[in-house]
Write a structure and sequence with these properties.
The complex is a heterodimer of chains A (306) and B (545). Chain A is mostly helical and 306 residues long. Chain A folds into two domains: 2-72, no CATH class; 91-268, MetI-like (MetI-like fold), CATH 1.10.3720. Chain A has twelve helices and no strands. Chain B contains 17 helices and 17 strands. The chains are: A mainly alpha (306), B alpha+beta (545). At the A-B interface, α2, α4, α6, α9 and α11 of A face α1, α8 and α14 of B.
């Protein structure tokens, strides 16, 4: 296990990051327009000064090496769009918000997804099962840019129960978390239902029922644990997707998370901010995937040498 | 057993649902932030995007300017209704007989938020800073009417004492201009002329260091009616009434919260649920609803800007003025503003918005399909002539630009029988295409920096930085030079009028409409007067039921 871990951490992870860094660096330079283009043209002299200030006057390969060295030292550089802030500052300010939102959404998805999946499985083939699975399919199909405004319309504008935008009080967390988590509720419910249907026909469940245990005890104590396995394996990529933020949900609800920076940085051609967020996301996703791989390797020794 | 089984399952699903419902039911709020704001004199503003910075010499956008207005004050401020310059840090000023030398007398009681006095030397330091080449300020050109300013900014001279800005003593600032500039006082209300606190700047870098942390709330020093209280990126900028501001007795607001809400739907919903007093915009699709249901909240203020198409005159068939005139004559501007924009935008009859600094151009833009057809035929296109070559109409991604372009495309097809291809590009790609001349016809909008026709008309001179049309005319350039060299109002306006008539005869641009500023304003907000530059000095604003 240790050589496997060492190989992942010391060789494969840095290599993956280097490839992502390199591809992103050169790809964004191919996009037309630059960080200092605007509707009112900047004079050649001001542009030259700005480019000198940010090191954009040097040959591209020199910029690449310089920035790579800077990132290796842990310095993601200053933001071009926000001159008073560094990329690290902006990420440090925005990521906790995305993380918090992602955690609430994941919690909501697990709570409702597992419950709905269990209920559907226990009522397999009845109207209740079909209803839950239909709603689940709806949850997967309805994109967040439709669901978000719909929830806002009902709970914010018509009922007036919840705020429609912002990230100040606890109530501000409700609608964005529901919007972001809804699609995962649907996935988890379907995975849970499938897992539970497999478990419910096992002999040990029949034994449990024969012993006179209540159905609730059978479901919660005996069936649930085994049914959770597909959900747990789904949690790795789901958690990575949730905590890295969502541009759509953050924009709809005006949330100061990292998802907005990730997208607006590309629109602004804020080169350092694009690089910083891409590297940051890459580290998170690679880490989550690595954790899953390690778990799988732990469960299946054949993978450790593969 | 079966019944208990069902009950248990219902409990499993009911528990979380019931908890959520109870939570939501307990959420009904007694008062909205807007109502609480009215009681506490806290103005809540939806301010589009996160500001780049809070450095008045660095920032370039409208959202930033709205915050600058609260935190800084220049020598003069713009009176809110007509934008006439009234005393700010300067209590009075004189213009010498040469029409070029301005002397400003600063008030003794103007102080920074840290208690230091605002001196003439601070202004000199500030103007030296914005003109320093290393700072890379995009608005340094606003100072180029000052003697030696352009040369200093371009590095031709390095001694700032050769620039026409002198602090004779703490309260006397003299500025010498290199040309008569009748709108000079109006320029001084622009944020590029705001002072910065020298000691604060030098504490965190050199005079020309870009992007230091002096604008963070814990380091910030300003001289405006409000002081910076909090800046949480992408969340809020809160400013509180300054206790050191010289005219603090006139300031009735106690706090202003700026929220960076860049989504028009979100800010409208926020307004509707009592989250903000003012929005930055209102989507055209919502205007009719507000006009019918909440007319007291809908504002359609005139705005100093023109929406137009720029024509690349270097590309056939657009190199023929008759073709360009025909295209312009075939655009039904009244229909565009009535059916698409709906925000009270006046159809363009000329290029410079009527009333800019008191100037009115002659009406030269109209809708006349018969004349349009005749001109196109004269150019050799249409029935019996050549077929019209492929032309592209470029615009940046936006629902409104797209709809307007579609309408214009249809008008040209119906009235002139020509096909134009619509090309939609992402903002930076569009800018690059426009600046490199890779377009046939392109959408443009121009918002005046100050209330004078010069801000519109000087962009079409030969090699003007924003003149992407490829068009130039020596007579036009000389007329703009005449207007720039005289302070006589009638002579200037006559030169502008002739220049604009020439521009609209040659038609390197097709004006479509004049902007209005369409937004939502809570009726409790008082002192928020409509004006051409969308400037709202917060010391005149207050909240009252």
């Amino acid at each position: 296990m240790i050589p496997f871990l060492l190989r992942r951490v010391c060789i494969e992870m840095p290599l993956s990051l280097l490839v992502i860094f390199t591809v992103t660096f050169f790809l964004i330079r191919l996009a037309p327009g630059g960080p200092f283009s605007s509707e009112k043209s900047v004079s050649a002299q001001v542009r030259a000064e700005l480019e000198r200030h940010y090191g954009l006057d040097k040959p591209l390969q020199v910029q690449y090496v310089n920035y790579l060295a800077s990132v290796v030292r842990g310095d993601l550089g200053p933001s071009f769009k926000y001159p008073g802030s560094t990329v690290a500052d902006l990420i440090a300010g925005a990521f906790p918000v995305s993380l918090e939102l992602g955690c609430y959404a994941l919690l909501f998805a697990l709570l409702f997804g597992i419950t709905a999946g269990m209920l559907a499985a226990s009522k397999n083939g009845t109207w209740c099962d079909y209803l839950i699975m239909s709603i689940g399919m709806g949850g997967i199909c309805i994109p967040s840019f439709v669901l978000g405004p719909l929830l806002v319309l009902v709970f914010g504008l018509i009922l007036g129960w919840l705020p429609v935008a912002g990230w100040s009080g606890p109530l501000d967390r409700v609608l964005p978390s529901l919007t972001l988590g809804m699609v995962y509720v649907a996935y988890i419910a379907r995975l849970m239902r499938g897992g539970m249907l497999e478990i419910l026909v096992q002999d040990f469940i029949k034994t449990a029922r024969a012993k006179g245990l209540s159905e609730r005890m059978v479901l919660v104590r005996h069936a649930m644990r085994g049914s959770l396995l597909p959900v747990v394996s789904f949690l790795g990529p789901a958690a990575a997707g949730l905590v890295t933020g969502s541009f759509v949900v953050e924009t709809i609800f005006s949330i100061p998370g990292l998802g907005r920076f990730f997208v607006t940085a590309a629109f602004n051609r804020d080169y350092t901010m694009i690089m910083g967020t891409v590297i940051f996301y890459a580290v998170i996703i690679i880490t989550f995937n690595m954790v899953v791989d390690v778990l799988l390797a732990y469960l299946d020794p054949r993978l450790r040498n593969g | 057993m079966q019944r208990r089984h069902v009950m248990n399952q219902i409990n499993v699903i009911q528990l979380p649902l019931f908890s959520l419902l109870s939570f939501l039911l307990s959420c009904s709020q007694k008062t909205t932030p807007v109502e609480r704001g009215i009681s506490s004199q806290t103005l809540l503003i939806a301010n589009q995007t996160e500001p780049q910075d809070l450095d008045p010499h660095i920032v370039t956008g409208v959202p930033e300017f709205h915050i600058m207005e609260a935190l800084f004050e220049g020598l003069v401020i713009a009176e809110p209704k007509e934008l006439q310059p009234v005393p700010g840090v300067a209590r009075s000023w004189d213009l010498a007989a040469d029409g070029l030398t301005w002397t400003f007398h600063l008030r003794n009681d103007a102080v920074w938020s840290n208690g230091d006095r605002v001196t003439a030397g601070d202004f000199r330091f500030s103007y030296q800073r914005i003109l320093s080449p290393n700072l890379g300020s995009e608005y340094a050109y606003m100072h180029f009417c000052i003697e030696g300013a352009e040369a200093y900014n371009k590095g031709t001279i390095t001694d700032f004492s050769k620039v026409g800005v002198d602090a004779l003593d703490d309260t006397t600032l003299v500025m010498r201009l290199c040309r008569p500039t009748p709108y000079f006082l109006s320029l001084l209300a622009h944020h590029s002329f705001f002072p910065v606190h020298p000691a604060t700047i030098l504490k965190f870098g050199k005079i020309d260091t870009r992007g230091t942390v002096w604008t963070r709330p814990e380091n910030f020093t300003g001289n405006g009616p409000f002081r910076l209280a909090a800046w949480e990126i992408n969340r809020i900028i809160a400013v509180k009434k300054s206790e050191t501001y010289w005219d603090r007795s006139s300031v009735r607001l106690r706090e202003i919260d700026f929220f960076p809400i860049d989504n028009q739907q979100t800010e409208e919903r926020s307004f509707r649920t009592g989250g903000v007093h003012v929005t930055a915009n209102l989507a055209p699709g919502k205007i009719e609803w507000y006009r019918a249901n909440r007319p007291e909240a809908l504002r359609t203020d005139p705005y100093l800007g023109t929406y137009f198409y720029v024509v690349n005159v270097t590309k056939p068939p657009l190199d023929d003025p008759a073709v360009r005139r025909a295209l312009s004559l075939a655009v039904d501007r009244a229909a565009i503003v009535r059916h698409i924009l709906k925000g009270g935008q006046p159809p363009a009859t000329c290029y410079t918005p009527p009333g800019t600094g008191g100037y009115h151009a002659d009406s030269a833009v109209r809708f006349d399909t018969t004349e349009a057809k005749r001109l196109l035929a004269k150019a050799g296109y249409g029935p019996g002539g050549r077929s019209f070559p492929a032309v592209e109409l470029l615009y940046n991604t936006s629902e409104t630009h797209h709809t307007v372009a579609q309408a214009v495309q249809q008008m040209w097809k119906r009235h002139l029988g020509i096909e134009v291809t619509l090309v939609n590009q992402e903002w930076k790609v569009y800018l690059a295409s426009k600046q490199r001349g890779r377009f046939g016809i392109a959408r443009m909008g121009w918002i005046g920096d100050y209330n004078d026709p010069m801000t519109f008309l000087d962009m079409w001179v030969k090699d003007g930085g924003n003149n992407n049309s490829g068009w130039s005319h020596t007579r036009y350039d000389s007329l703009i030079a005449v207007a720039a060299a005289t302070s006589d109002r009638e002579a200037r306006f006559a030169a502008f009028r002739e220049a604009e008539a020439l521009l609209l005869d040659e038609m390197p641009i097709v004006p479509v409409y004049f902007y209005t500023n369409v937004y939502l304003l809570h009726p409790a907000v008082k002192g928020w007067d409509p004006n051409l530059l969308n400037i709202h000095n917060y010391k005149y604003v207050y909240l009252e039921k």
